[in-house]
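User: Sequence in, structure out. Go.
Assistant: Echoing your sequence, followed by the structure tokens.
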Amino acid sequence: MTSVYSIAPIFVLRDPRVFRDEFGRSGLFVLKNPWLDLLQRYRNAQESRVSKYSLFDAVRLKESVVLAEGGTAGAGTPGAIVEIFEDGKAYLVELFGNWVKYDSQGQLAPAHPDELNVFQETLGVELAYPHQLQLIAPAAEAAGVRTRLAVLLDKLPESLLLQVHDFADLLNQQRIADKSS
């Protein structure tokens, strides 16, 4: 008896007749549509792309994380990725707490996010895995171009920094020439 399973418009034919290969192993004869394999590879590529985060991406914890300095950061705690390990298998995330500001005595005091000179206190910098994180905003939206460029410049060797410097100087000279004409 042959049965056909439908996956969207793609069909997989499973024939329960047992076969033997050239090594004497037995198994089920399975015919697969090559489009199904292509679709699966596409989905895997999309999932791996979605699960990767970039440096300085704003993230939120999906589950509680134990802090190295004691205590826990609960689910929903915001943070920012500050280091990436093994091409995205793990991340070092700076986790943020309440909004605070310095009072007149130089002590941290609770504050409202709309006040002047406020910031979120750092709860800790902890190791987190992709399944523990949810993207809030990509770094491209959160950080300006100058910040992203500064991060890239820190990673470049001295020889490439000279090339970047020369190119930036050329762009600046063109900008000055365009203004004067």
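User: And one key feature?
Assistant: The chain has three domains: 3-51, 58-143, 146-180.
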